[in-house]
Amino acid sequence: MNSHDRASGPLAPESDAAFPMMASRVDLLSQVLTLIKLRGELVFSAELTAPWALNFDAGSAYFHVMQDGAMRVSASDGRVIEAGPGDLLVLPQGRGHVIGTPDGKPVSARLVLFAQMKEESLTISLGGGGAATNLISGAFRFEGDNLPSMLAVLPSIIHISREALAEEAGWLDGLAHYLHAEARAPQSGAAIMISRLIDVLVIRAMRTWVHKAPPENKGWLGALADIRISRALKTIHDAPFERRSVAELADIAGMSRSSFAERFTSLIGAAPLHYQTRWRLLLANEMLKGGRTRVSDVARRVGYESDAAFSRAFKAQFGVSPVSVAHPEE
């Protein structure tokens, strides 16, 4: 057994309290979102007439609920979506995007919001007087040290059509109603209300998208809808400190070793053992925060017999040493 293979026994987690998700065995999407900490920031309504276009800078992520009209959405990676009435679009990566009519000249969304939004009404208007488009839009952020690894999970645009939404009993209509009310006339507690509504909208959008989009379009999250690969993922997440071989994971998935490794890597973007190690280090990063647990203890809990091996792997993953996470003031 080498320094990377220790996984269980007396040096495994001492209790489920070390990482609460282990006790409840929550689903994989919840585990990912727990680590990257979704936080809603802002909601506003937009009354737009053709031609128009808004450029959203990199930084916050955004969603757009199409109440009526039509628009083109262009992500920073070149992906373009044509959206119509009733559609929901979520741009989770925070890399910037443009929305508008094809003939619109983009103006800064940040400047328009700054100039037009008021405390008593979070509404903007823009355009040349042509065909109308009305939106409810909002900004949110993912926070946490695990962003680089976990945002790779998400596509540049999550597009859920009106037809797909119609199959799910109007959940978006209900959320949009309350978001619109907060944008039109914010009341006491608006900030926390908006944040919580955005949380629900984004999480529900991800869940719907996982089940509706073709597997080839899902990137990492496509694995959640792939029955065989999701079995292997669940095994890794339910017992993250028990190191398993590719052959063992393939057997759990009910696939040959080569087919499993190829399918897993194509969906996840990482080979099975690399992903297993990365997930354990993400959990280790959470354990170290606050300085309440010694680095050597965390190293043993996540399966490393050697502090030096753990430190090398941790620094390769996060670019900093585990000591600097546990004791940032030093």
Automatic annotation (TrEMBL):
The keyword DNA-binding applies. InterPro entries: AraC_lig, AraC_XylS_family_regulators, Homeodomain-like_sf, HTH_AraC, RmlC_Cupin_sf, Tscrpt_reg_AraC-type_HTH. PANTHER family: ARAC FAMILY TRANSCRIPTIONAL REGULATOR, HTH-TYPE TRANSCRIPTIONAL ACTIVATOR RHAS-RELATED. The keyword DNA-binding applies. This is Cupin. SUPFAM superfamilies: Homeodomain-like (SSF46689), RmlC-like cupins (SSF51182). Residues 230-328 form the HTH araC/xylS-type domain. One of its GO terms (molecular function) is DNA-binding transcription factor activity. Coiled coil: none annotated. Keywords: DNA-binding, Transcription, Transcription regulation. It comes from the Bacteria. Pfam families: Cupin_6, HTH_18.
